[in-house]
Records
---
Amino acid sequence: MNVKRIFGTILTILGIIGLIYAGWGFVQQSAGTRGLVVAAIIGVIFFVSGISLVRNTKDEA
């Protein structure tokens, strides 16, 4: 399997986890706002870069 595609999948999953954590924190108002904003920004960056890696990697047999 292609290493770029695996890395893109891992980045996408980490981005989803970061976005869920930030969303849950905003709803529960449990952590500091600054930490949640940082988690959300990092989550978006990971998610977008992971999706672009998976999308732009060509399948080679």
Note: Helices lie at 3-28, 33-56.
---
Amino acid sequence: MADERETFWNKLGDINAGMLGLSDDQRFMPMSHYPDPDASALWFISARGTDLVQSLGNGPQAGLHMVSDGGEGLYACIRGRLSLSDDDAKLEELWNAIASSWFEDGLKDPDIQLVRFDMESAEYWVTGGSMSFLYQIAKSKVSGEKPDLGDHGSLTF
């Protein structure tokens, strides 16, 4: 189980973004995530005017974050609780060139809103990545055996 968690967090950390939304909503948006394994959380830097942030203004809500990256070999549906955060120290820790591209006034931009996603569970598929996928498909054609495309499992946080 510890190896599964470590693999999950390592692969998730190598992926830049996924689709984030509320569990009871059909609208998801691409968002860069910032993993925080010690807290079993993901962080997002968003804008106050987004539908997601506006919805969270009424308090924490159930959310989903979906990740699909064949190159890194991780596909995951992560469930948890989304909430707004005013943690300036965390925002400074996460701040980077990508985030600064969205906010003209940098860290002082009044439109910045930090969002915390406390993870509860994840269903995942871990593969060896795109090169491994191609190898497994070619091997299955020669051997007649089904390809070994990796592991599937669930984690609870």
Note: Strands lie at 17-22, 29-32, 34-36, 41-47, 61-69, 74-85, 112-126, 151-156.
